[in-house]
Amino acid sequence: MAIVDYRVQNHVGVITLNNPPVNALSVGKGLLQGILDAIKEGEHDTAVKAFLLIGGGRNFSGGADITEFGKPPVPGMATLRDVLSYMDTVTKPICAALAGPTMGGGLELALGAHWRCAVTGAQIGLPEVKLGILPGAAGTQRLPRLIGAATALDMMVSGDPVSTERAHELGIVDEIVEGDLAAAALKFAQRVVKEGRPIRRISAMTVAVEGDADALFAEARARIATQWRGYPAPLEIAACVEAAVQQPFAKGVAFERERFEVLVATSESKSLRHAFFAERAAAKVNGLPEDTPVREIRSAAVIGAGTMGGGIAMNFANAGIPVKILEASPERLDKGLSVIRANYAATVSKGRLSQEAMDKRMALMTGVSSYDDLRDADIIIEAVFEEMPVKQEVFRTLDAVAKPGAILATNTSTLDIDAIAAVTARPQDVIGLHFFSPANVMKLLEIVRGAKTGGDVIATSMKLAKTIRKVGALVGVCDGFVGNRMVHAYFREAGYLLEEGALPQQVDRVMEAFGFAMGPFRVSDLAGLDIGWAIRKRQAATRDPAERYSRIADLICEQGRFGQKTGAGYYRYEGSRKPVPDPAIEALIVQASKDGGFTRREISDQEILERCLYQLVNVGAQILEEGIAQRASDIDIIYLYGYGYPRYRGGPMMSADLIGLPKVLEAVKGYEQRVGQWWKPAALLERLAAEGKGFNG
Ligand code: NAD
Q: Are 284 and 336 in contact, with CB atoms under 8 Å apart?
């Protein structure tokens, strides 16, 4: 079928968009040109009394073809703006039939029509803000004219779609139609003709503003500044809506165009678009055919109902998958289940989950006391203590009891998956599923492939990530895998900065200004300092004496300051979560510098940022060159979803690309000379910088 099908039915020129899967408004494929040609033909055809724009398949249009972003115009091919300009001159009523995802350019096209109907189940919105841009085909000018300034602004700043019913209430949709879309929409268009409804150009309307316009925009800008710190698009959207209120349509459209061009070129927008594509890329496993068979996951089991196990089990219950939970003792099992119950109850009390849904989820969880009860589970995830002998014992037992074909997963954060798999007779079934704390909340799932993990087990795990609404990223075995190996270098460097002259509040301020919700020391205080202390004590005997070791964290722990939970860590808390810089900590750090033989110096914000960020980048480059991560964008995804890296910065590897690898390399080499040998640049960083390339191409 042609990309645009045009035929006259009962005096209605029906224009059908056929560009599966979502009818993206492609310029290059000629979809928009096809629409323009059809409307021109009908405009001159006396047999045609009205037009109907409709999507073939199940939706109207998901919006622009974002693979065409930033590409030069295609000669001889109409753009959405060309189509909309012509639509504004047409002398016959144009109707649009909304269904399924009707987003971005799709909605802008529909707003160029005079009348809109929709079927139930449509998602209608302008989500451009999520890619760091704004609706650039007059959406910022037409939507406020149709539904008022305040509501339009909210819709475009959040980017969240509304339902058919809500769109009807707001006036975006004139009529909700039932039954077969094509037939119902055609009837709607015929009714428009029969009732003699006028041409209703949104561009000719004025914007309704409730109350004082200046106050509305001042309040909106203040809200945006706090809620959308670092994101460039929302403020520009507010400016465009203000232009819609104050200026004639054509001037507003020109203003919107200018702001659009500015936004597209920002590094924030490039980063947000990178994040969008990176997430899709992360779902792909190199070298694994797309049609690799997956195993059915109808039931799950979790071993250990501590901090992680409970949250992991909740993910399965949330997805409607029954899950058994095995603990070491009935008391611990009860405790684990009551934490889960309390977690759900908190969500219910906030009104974000119904009591009925909570009961359903709790009913899917069964506490058990014997491995025999795990015999029929399709997947078993172990989340017991982080000790190799304990894990190996669990896997030996699982090997004996689990049914053939069951996936045996470990949630270890540091241990060697291959050594765990080696105690079983089925290493092909063993995989790491590394959840992040709190496991029921954090979106990231590092899927750790062992040397012998089967392709179907990997494919099943990637699919499972989607089922339980996580973002899966495939990684290989090494100490800390991708995320924690990098973050270790980041925290270590932050500690060195204290020794050399910085204070926690300065480092945190710099990283928070960069866009992290919390700097490294506030994060440490929140997570608790005792866990790291215990690990360091265990590692002390095997630590390389040549490696620089900062004692500051240990000294803080020795005072019983374990962070927020003890009311003090790198900061004091005084009964709240608000960190207060503590002179006692400053004195401790100054003394530690002295004892370590450091002469404290003024450290610039620039140096702090570079040293924290470029440690992530350099270790990330090593990880890439070792093949532990499949692609740079996977590392970015891990940081966006697991470590609170600001999305508008795209992830550490994208940040490096935007800064420029030669510049990053030069700084890294400088630190290697001035600070220490651990700054030796990764070979991949040197090679890509020399070739004039970036990590992401
Ligand atoms: P935890 O101490 O809170 O929970 C461990 C639970 O396992 C305890 O309830 C314990 O009773 C139970 N357990 C121990 N041995 C058992 C056995 N043989 N059979 C059944 N139950 C047993 O620990 P956690 O923080 O939940 O960590 C669990 C695992 O998850 C560790 O491997 C850890 O490295 C990993 N992990 C932790 C985090 C985190 O932030 N806490 C993040 C990612 C991964």
A: no
